[in-house]
Amino acid sequence: MGYREERGYRCDIAKQAAKEALVGFQGRVSLIPTAGLQRDKGLRWMTSEEAIKELEAISLSFGRGSIVPALSSAYELLRGLSVPKQILLLSDMARSDWQISI
Predict the structure, then answer these.
(1) Nearest one of 1, 90, 11, 79 to 43, comparing CA atoms
(2) pTM summary value
(3) What is the pLDDT of residues 57-76, one digit of tens each?
(4) Are 59 and 91 in contact (CB under 8 A)?
């Protein structure tokens, strides 16, 4: 997300896209970064307004993103709910984040 293109840094572009998706959303939201995720922080449900504020506080990490743990965390949060669910995944599609080592 640290790459810069004509429209700006990819991190900022992704944050703006997330904000646009969250504005006016009435459900509950949890933000799960793919890089720099602090497992001890704990994931929580919040309003869209709270999520937008928290989104602003997420800083660019120079670590490699890890998709599988992030999606596993999302699955665990959603698993027991009996309401409609969605996962919105924002990525700059950097190759290193999508490579899975076996």
Answers:
(1) 79
(2) 0.72
(3) 888 777 777 788 888 888 88
(4) no
